Automatic annotation (TrEMBL):
Keywords: ATP-binding, Cell membrane, Kinase, Membrane, Nucleotide-binding, Phosphoprotein, Transferase, Transmembrane, Transmembrane helix, Two-component regulatory system. It holds the Pfam family HATPase_c. This is Sensor-like histidine kinase SenX3. PROSITE patterns: HIS_KIN, PAS. Residues 336-555 form the Histidine kinase domain. Its main location: membrane. Residues 235-274 form the PAS domain. It catalyses: ATP + protein L-histidine = ADP + protein N-phospho-L-histidine. It is a multi-pass membrane protein. The chain crosses the membrane at residues 31-54, 197-216.
Length: 560
């Protein structure tokens, strides 16, 4: 006899054990069940904490109420002229009935009237009359009413001690003291009377928690479907890993142009809220991003390797219609956009261009100064001192103002140094460079390396154009303030931009040879992106070729 194929009856126990283990695994709690248990546990915990807090609050309020009652009764008795006269006479026989009547009509536990030296004239237990009072009396003897918690003959109590003055007069002498108290046991009994209300409220909260847990379980089962917790966990982990590990920004929009999904990189690049809430529904026009980019996202316009400036970021953007599992376009599913940050590459290119510009400037200065020093040495050796003096004046006159700004720590020292070097480079290339720099040098809203890149590239391109053109070869560079803007204007006598170039400021757009020093189509593209990132504008006009840059004026230069 066998239980199953290949299983003898002797293995029945093992077979049953395996089946029991399988059933236990299959009967494990679903995601909805676990959520329901957690929800119920939280509700029970909250109900317990709330009950404890209510109990503490009731106890505290009961004690405060006892303090108010005892103070009120004590002050009332202390101001009674009859009580003052009887207490002064030490008449316990007449005071005790009055105290017993007060005890019957109020919620206090005891009223003790005593002499100033603490001998009881009244007490709830007549046997205690004539014995010393147990408790503090110093503040009352000093004329102040005070409240304390003290353990006396009736147990721990909240008591108020007030001075009784002659004839109840505020200015009279203290003839006795009165102590009115409520035992803590009485306070606890009052709290216990309210306990059913706390229990009922806690039970109601737990009942609502049970209903909520059932609703959570049902809702979770509708969402998770037939996935087991392990399968659902692996699915979510894979989804999160792919979404948040991408080094490119990813934005998914629906048919109406609203953003429904994006990853961490997209949130950083576009200034969106942190991508931690899964799917959302966000109108891109409401986000703090470039208006043109927001409009492109909302309209679903196809974008292929487009460069977009968003704040201080330069982005390379692609946007296509969503596709289904077969790879076919699925417009009903919306659009998918990818974004790549080119800002770091842009910054590196800018720094490289700045270093190249400064190195060329230093090379030109070295060469030009070498020539002039040789000429000066020859003139001095020939004894032609006047000619040597005129050469020095002619060499330094045109750049003396810029040199003075370097020495005087002018805010525009970096730009001044750059232009000073460009004078030598222009002279070396046979180009006349005229400089018109306002004094003091206008403060550019650019980091130092950005200022070098913008000014250096504009002047370099003008020198290249002028050097390749016919006589007279000239370049004019102007830096001034114009209202709320700082204007950088560079003109040259060259042939102008190549009309075959669609955009001379685009990356790769150049008329230089393929192996030209310093690369091709980089300089002006860097200028355009830096100016756009800083909120500036570019203007180009011909006859003569002029590039004009407008940057918003600032009080202080931007630091790197």
């Amino acid at each position: 006899m066998t239980v199953g194929e290949g299983e003898p009856i002797g293995d029945l126990w093992s077979y049953c054990s395996r089946q029991a283990r399988r059933r236990a695994v299959d009967m494990r709690l679903s995601v909805g069940g676990r959520l329901a248990l957690v929800s119920l546990g939280v509700v029970v915990l909250v109900a317990g904490v709330l009950a404890a807090l209510l109990s503490v609050q009731l106890s505290d309020s009961g004690q405060r109420e006892a303090e108010k009652v005892t103070r009120s009764v004590a002050e009332t008795i202390a101001h009674e002229p009859d009580v003052a006269s009887l207490a002064a006479a030490g008449d316990s026989e007449r005071l005790q009935p009055m105290v017993e009547q007060i005890l019957a009509e109020t919620d206090v536990s005891f009223v003790t009237i005593m002499t100033p030296d603490g001998i009881r004239l009244t007490h709830r237990n007549r046997a205690e009359i004539g014995l010393p009072y147990i408790g503090s009396r110093d503040e009352a003897l000093a004329g102040r009413t005070f409240t304390e918690v003290y353990e006396g003959t009736l147990g721990p109590s909240v008591r108020t001690i007030a001075p009784i003055r002659d004839n109840g007069d505020e200015e009279g002498a203290i003839v006795a003291l009165v102590s009115v108290g409520v035992t803590l046991g009485a306070v606890q009994q009052d709290i216990a009377a309210r306990a059913p209300l706390i229990v009922l409220a806690s039970a109601a909260i737990v009942g609502l928690g049970v209903l909520g847990a059932l609703y959570v379980r049902r809702s979770a089962r509708r969402v998770t479907g037939s996935y087991t917790p392990g399968e659902l966990s692996r699915l979510v982990e894979s989804y999160e890993t792919v979404l948040h590990s991408l080094r490119e920004g990813l934005v998914v929009t629906d048919r109406s142009g609203r953003i429904v999904l994006y990853n961490d990189e997209a949130a950083d690049l576009l200034g969106l809220p942190p991508a931690t809430a899964g799917q959302v529904s966000l109108d891109p026009r409401d986000a703090e991003m470039d208006a043109a980019l927001a409009e492109a996202i909302a309209t679903g316009r196809r974008m292929v390797e487009e460069t977009v400036v968003n704040g201080d970021r330069v982005l390379l953007v692609n946007q296509e219609e969503a596709r289904d599992l077969t790879g076919r376009r699925a417009p009903a599913r919306g659009q998918v956009m990818t974004l790549r940050d080119r800002s770091e590459l842009q910054a590196l290119l800018g720094e490289l261009e700045g270093v190249r510009t400064l190195s060329d400037t230093l090379r030109s200065q070295t060469h030009e100064h070498g020539n002039r020093l040789h000429a000066l040495l020859a003139l001095l050796e020939l004894g032609r001192v006047d000619d040597a003096r005129r050469l020095i004046v002619a060499s330094t006159g045109e750049r003396q103002e810029l040199a003075d700004r370097l020495v005087s720590h002018d805010e525009g020292a970096i730009v001044a140094a750059l232009l000073l070097g460009k004078l030598d480079e222009a002279a070396e290339r046979g180009v006349r460079l005229d400089l018109d720099v306002a004094e003091p040098t206008p403060s550019l809203p650019l980091a130092p390396e950005e200022a070098v890149t913008v000014v250096g590239n504009l002047v370099d391109n003008a020198l290249d154009a002028a050097a390749a053109g016919a006589e007279p070869r000239w370049v004019r560079a102007t830096l001034r303030e114009n209202g709320d803007d700082v204007v950088i204007e560079v003109s040259d006598g060259g042939a102008g931009f190549d009309p075959t170039l669609e955009d001379p400021f685009a990356f790769g757009s150049s008329t230089k040879t393929a192996h030209a020093p310093g690369g091709r189509g980089v300089g002006l593209a860097l200028v355009r992106d830096i100016v756009a990132a800083r909120g500036g504008t570019l203007q180009v006009r011909a006859d003569p070729t002029t590039v004009r840059v407008f940057l918003p004026a600032v009080a202080e230069a931007v630091t790197a």
